[in-house]
Fold this sequence. Notes:
Blueprint: E1 7-12, E2 15-20, H1 31-46, E3 52-57, H2 68-75, H3 79-101, E4 107-111, E5 114-116, H4 118-124, E6 128-132, E7 136-138, H5 152-160, H6 162-171, E8 174-176, H7 177-183, E9 188-190, H8 195-206, H9 211-216
Parallel strand pairs: 2-3, 3-4, 4-6, 5-7, 6-9
Antiparallel strand pairs: 1-2, 7-8
Helix pairs in contact: 1-3, 4-5, 5-6
Amino acid sequence: MADYEFITLQSHEGVATLTLNRPDKRNAISDAMRTELIHALETVAQDRAIRALVLTGAGKGFCAGGDIAGMQRRMDAPAGEVAFNGWSRQQRVHHAVSLLYHMPKPTIAAVNGAAAGLGADTALSCDFVVASTAASFTWSYIARGLIPDGGGMYFLPRRVGLARAKELIYSGRKVSADEALKLGIADRLASAGDELAAAQGWAAELAQGSATALALS
């Protein structure tokens, strides 16, 4: 496996574990982290020895969303470059989400803490979500005058229905782990600290099937 600065990627008995690794920033996704994430997802997709993927976060949070400091730096660019920088970033966001969503093997998000904004979208980009009892979800884009541009507009209605998705997006309110399970945002709950092992165990079970049939399914 390649060496990364802002993520870690490990594989054991066919199950890869990709960890967002900026715990001091609650694993907010910077441009540099996104570049590493794209490379890692491409590696996992192409490695036939890897049969399933678990995505999690280091420290107490899963992912706080996009990196605010990076957004500010892009806004400070010369006027003629601001729009292009935003468009370029969005292309990269969509590429990372697409790689995860179209991964030709089962993917499980092990949500160990807060998943906010792009972090919540990223969790729903996976096939399944295992949430810690300490986890929470929020589509908090509204607080910054934004929309869920990391896949949430597509994924959330398919998880919870259109009316409930609108309510969560319009309000930006926090959803607890228990409510996330009831609404269908999370598929399983695990005790705090056990969510990664639970997700890895489930991934190992799913990986037993035909790799070709899994990919086509």
